[in-house]
Amino acid sequence: MINNIPIILASASPRRKELLEQAGFSFTVTTSDADESITYETPEHFAETLALRKADSVYNKIKSEYKDQNFVVIGADTIVYYDGEILGKPADEDEAFDMLTMLCDRTHQVYTGVAVIYRNALGKQVELINEKTDVTLYPATAKELKEYINTGDPLDKAGAYGIQGPFAVHVKEICGDYNNVVGLPIAKLYQTLKSMDIISY
Which of 35, 56, 68, 77 is an active site residue? Predict the structure, then answer.
């Protein structure tokens, strides 16, 4: 069972919201205003650091509302990584085209970092996790990519594509957690919440 503890998702992502709902979680959403400019050592470190910043920003924003009550904040950040470069959300359609041109007919990695902050009688407990999925894309023509970009779908997504939308026709293979590419490794998060006694059976 999911224990009777308020859960706050520190993300406005409709994909993450949908994954949590599908898994049976009850939660509220509070968006973060964390600074997302960082230096990093590895893509895992980048994703985890931003996830923690988002979760911590929301934790500090709402902790007074809960007074002595236990609560959980979940923050997440998803990036696309290829050839030593981190690809976030494209700034415009031209950048989206450049990103997709680079990724097509190649294999890249998608990393999601997740931060769980649990306030309980012991204080503030923090757990960080990350998940990596390899994604291989088919070759695509410039016309195909421009038609996809014209849908507007890639502009709010890391790496300029969403695997669960119209771009799915260009995905040749994935190795790893599909939901991680959508934006949240829900199974790994679930296991983490169990290990923290937020969920018990």
Answer: 77
